[in-house]
Amino acid sequence: MTYVLDRIWQALGDATSEGTGFTLGILATIGVGGGPRARAIILRKFQPAPARIYFATNVHSDKVDEIQEHPQVALTLQDGSVQLRIQGKAVIADDAERLTAWEALAPHSRELYATAGIPGEAVDETAERVEDPGTAFQRFAWIRVDLEHLDWLDLAGPH
Ligand SMILES: Cc1cc2nc3c(=O)[nH]c(=O)nc-3n(C[C@H](O)[C@H](O)[C@H](O)COP(=O)(O)O)c2cc1C
User: Fold this and answer.
1) Residue 80, Ramachandran bin (φ over 0: left; ψ between -120 and 50: alpha; else beta)
2) What one-character DSSP code corresponds to residue 131?
3) Which of 41, 53, 58, 109 to mutate to test ligand 1, by most ligand atoms within 8 A of the CB atom?
4) Which of 12, 30, 67, 89 has its CA 20 to 30 A from that of 36?
5) Mean of the per-residue pLDDT values for the chain?
């Protein structure tokens, strides 16, 4: 049991420090109007005790409203023959934690928040794209997921 947990901690550490198949996950939430919602997110940070993972998002994205209404989330990661399923409670980080995360973010990642467009909304391709790097931080949200249940499956091993 401890062996599996060690492997999970190692895999999550590698995913956030060097980039692996586990770096990109599929996060599922409960839609505000009901029904499941799922989307790709990048794992940005992991800490083992207490067990938490973190990701960045746009504060105006649907997932932020969904997490506020239903904090229980599921995250599926897959790397080769290995799948890790996580259930947990998502928490929108406070301003102090948000600022620390923003300062650690690479410039090219910060640029993603320069556009005033709302993620997931239809794009008007005829309209001029509005970029405002000065207000990018206002659109940045930092989400913590407290890990509550883990399910590790390696199809290459006994299962
Ligand atoms: C490779 C890839 C990585 C992505 N990483 C993130 C991410 O880290 N955070 C995020 O909010 N959206 C990320 N997205 C975009 C989401 O999948 C999604 O389209 C967007 O966040 C809007 O989702 P929502 O309307 O369900 O909130 C990523 C998309 C792709 C294709």
Assistant:
1) left
2) B
3) 41
4) 12
5) 93
The Å distance, Cα 146 to ligand 1 centre, comes to 20
Q: Is residue 30 within 6 Å of ligand 1 at its C-beta?
A: no
Task: Locate all alpha helices (DSSP H) within the chain, ordered by sequence.
Answer: 2-17, 62-69, 95-104, 107-110
Q: Domains in the chain, please, with CATH?
A: 2-120+140-154 (2.30.110.10)
124, HSE (Cβ side, Cα atoms, 13 Å): 7
**What are 133-158's pLDDT values in tens digits?**
889 999 999 999 999 999 999 999 77
Beta-bridge mates of residue 39:
27
Token pair 């690479």 is at which residue?
106
pLDDT over threshold 80, residue 118: no
What type of residue is 88?
G
Confidence at residue 131, expressed as pLDDT on a 0 to 100 scale: 81
Ligand 1 close to Cβ of residue 37 (< 6 A): yes
* Whether the predicted model's global pTM rises above the 0.85 cut: yes
Q: Which residue has the tokens 């229980």?
A: 72
